[in-house]
Design goal:
The protein has five helices and two strands. The chain is mostly helical. The longest helix is centred in the first third of the chain and has 20 residues.
Length: 135
């Protein structure tokens, strides 16, 4: 998204950068880049919210098209934890705000077939849980 708008990762984007049309294009580009990476014989990590079921289906399809296993990881934490983390960010690539968190929590549930990780643990523990699942 930041590349698309020609800004540095730390530059905050406004709501005009998060319209349904822009989201569709950003996720399509992510799927295309992931597909190209997989087609070249490499593993890929597609890091995004994936709140929209269509976006989740597209990234899962990219793995199927490449005939490689797909492992969806869904990080979950209580809204108050997410709000506190967003409030503590400085010079960060994320554009999330408390309002964004509230909207995502209200409109998104963990997808079927994705492994839910407890993201309330320290970062290294969450990463270890992800690695253990992927192993």
């Amino acid at each position: 998204r930041k590349r698309r708008f020609g800004v540095t990762p730390e530059t905050r984007l406004g709501s005009e950068s998060y319209t349904p049309e822009v989201n569709r294009d950003v996720y399509a580009a992510l799927v295309a880049r992931t597909s190209a990476t997989l087609a070249a014989g490499y593993s890929a990590i597609a890091d995004a919210v994936f709140a929209d079921p269509e976006h989740r289906a597209a990234i899962e399809q990219a793995a199927r098209d490449a005939a490689v296993p797909f492992a969806g990881l869904w990080l979950q934490a209580p809204p108050e934890t997410l709000r506190a983390r967003v409030a503590s960010r400085l010079n960060d690539a994320s554009d999330a705000t408390a309002k964004v968190i509230d909207r995502q929590v209200a409109n998104t549930t963990a997808p079927s077939g994705w492994h839910v990780l407890d993201a309330t643990t320290p970062e290294d523990e969450t990463a270890a849980s992800a690695n253990a699942y992927l192993a």
